[in-house]
Design the sequence.
C-alpha cells in the first residue's frame, strides 16, 4: 500500500554566523538524511531528547519551514514542487497542533473567530453555517459550544490545547502533526489530551505524526515509533516490538528512564556518560559513539546505516541489541 506521507533524504541545515561580518563558519544539521513512510490511518511517533530534530522534521513535512534538500510526498504528490498558491490549497489536508497552547492562539481574538478563520480560508462550509460548525468543533474536543464567545486567557492550559486541536481539525485534514501536544500541560490533564487524540484519530480516520519525548505517552497512542538522535533516525519499529526489544543503545537508555508505576519493581537506569556534543560538531563514525556504553573502535570510524531486519524493525547500529536493558542503576 502506498504511504500517505513519504519522506526521502530530508535535510534541514542552519548556517552558524560568527564575527563582525557574520560569515557562515559552521552549520547545524537539524535534520540529516531522514527517510520516513507513514501509512494512512496510523500514528507514527517520533521520540528523542531535546535538540534531536523532531520538531524541525515535523515542520518541514508540512512545509512550515523550507528544507535544505530531499523529497516530501503527500498522497503521491511532491509537496516541495508546489507553488505558494498550490501549497495553500493542499494545506487543507494537513495541519499541525503546536506544543504551546498559550502562544499558538491569538489572545486578541475570540475562540469562535479563531476557529472560523480556517473554515473561511479553505471554504469548508458556507458562511451561514460557520457558527454552527464552530460549535460542532468545540463539542468534538469536549468543550461547550458557548466557549466560542470567550478569549484564550479565560481557559486553562488543557482547554487551550483542546481549542488548538479543534482549529487543526477545522479544515477536515487527513494528516495531523502533533508537536509535543502535552509537554506544556499539567500531569493531571495530559492523559485527557492523549485520550482525546486517540479517540479523534479513530473517529475521524486521521493519520498522525506524534512528536514527543514522553515515552509513556507514545506507548499509549502510537502504532509505530521512530527514535531520532542528532538529526537522524537511529531506530524504528512497531510500538510493542520497540518497547519489548529495543536494539539501539540510545533507545535502551531512553526506555530505562521511563518511570514504573509499581514502587516495588526495581529497574536499572542507564546513565549516559557524556553530555550531547555541540550541534555544530561533525563527528566521524556513529554520532552516538561519544555517549554509547558499548562503543568500539568501529563505531568511531564508520557510520552505521539504518538497516531493517526484515520484520519492520530498523536500527542504525553496528552492535544492535548488545546493550543489556537490565543493567544496574548507574550502569
Sequence:
Amino acid at each position: 500500500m502506498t504511504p500517505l506521507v513519504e519522506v526521502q533524504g530530508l535535510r534541514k541545515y542552519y548556517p552558524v554566523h560568527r564575527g563582525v561580518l557574520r560569515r557562515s563558519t559552521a552549520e547545524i544539521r537539524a535534520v540529516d538524511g531522514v527517510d520516513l513512510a507513514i501509512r494512512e490511518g496510523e500514528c507514527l511517533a517520533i521520540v528523542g531528547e531535546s535538540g534531536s530534530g523532531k520538531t524541525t522534521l515535523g515542520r518541514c513535512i508540512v512545509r512550515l519551514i523550507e528544507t535544505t534538500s530531499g523529497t516530501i510526498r503527500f498522497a503521491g504528490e511532491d509537496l516541495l514542487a508546489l507553488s505558494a498558491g498550490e501549497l495553500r490549497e493542499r494545506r487543507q489536508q494537513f495541519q499541525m497542533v503546536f506544543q504551546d497552547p498559550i502562544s499558538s492562539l491569538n489572545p486578541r481574538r475570540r475562540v469562535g473567530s479563531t476557529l472560523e478563520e480556517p473554515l473561511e480560508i479553505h471554504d469548508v462550509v458556507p458562511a451561514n453555517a460557520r457558527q454552527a460548525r464552530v460549535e460542532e468543533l468545540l463539542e468534538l474536543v469536549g468543550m461547550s459550544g458557548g466557549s466560542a464567545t470567550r478569549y484564550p486567557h479565560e481557559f486553562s492550559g488543557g482547554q487551550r490545547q483542546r481549542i488548538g486541536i479543534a482549529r487543526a481539525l477545522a479544515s477536515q485534514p487527513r494528516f495531523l502533526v502533533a508537536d509535543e501536544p502535552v509537554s506544556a500541560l499539567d500531569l493531571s490533564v495530559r492523559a485527557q489530551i492523549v485520550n482525546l487524540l486517540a479517540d479523534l484519530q479513530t473517529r475521524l480516520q486521521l493519520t498522525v505524526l506524534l512528536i514527543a519525548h514522553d515515552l509513556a505517552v507514545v506507548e499509549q497512542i502510537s502504532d509505530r515509533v521512530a527514535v531520532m538522535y542528532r538529526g537522524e533516525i537511529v531506530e524504528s519499529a512497531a510500538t510493542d516490538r520497540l518497547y519489548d526489544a529495543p536494539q539501539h543503545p540510545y533507545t535502551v537508555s531512553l526506555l530505562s528512564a521511563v518511570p514504573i508505576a509499581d514502587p516495588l519493581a526495581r529497574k536499572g537506569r542507564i546513565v549516559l556518560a557524556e553530555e550531547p556534543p555541540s550541534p555544530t560538531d561533525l563527528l566521524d563514525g556513529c554520532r552516538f559513539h561519544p555517549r554509547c556504553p558499548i562503543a568500539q573502535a568501529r563505531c568511531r570510524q564508520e557510520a552505521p546505516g539504518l538497516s531493517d531486519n526484515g520484520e519492520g524493525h530498523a536500527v542504525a547500529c553496528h552492535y544492535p541489541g548488545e546493550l543489556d536493558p537490565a543493567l544496574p542503576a548507574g550502569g
Observations:
- The chain has a mean pLDDT of 89.
- The two ends are 43 Å apart (CA to CA).
- The chain has two domains: 5-244, 252-331.
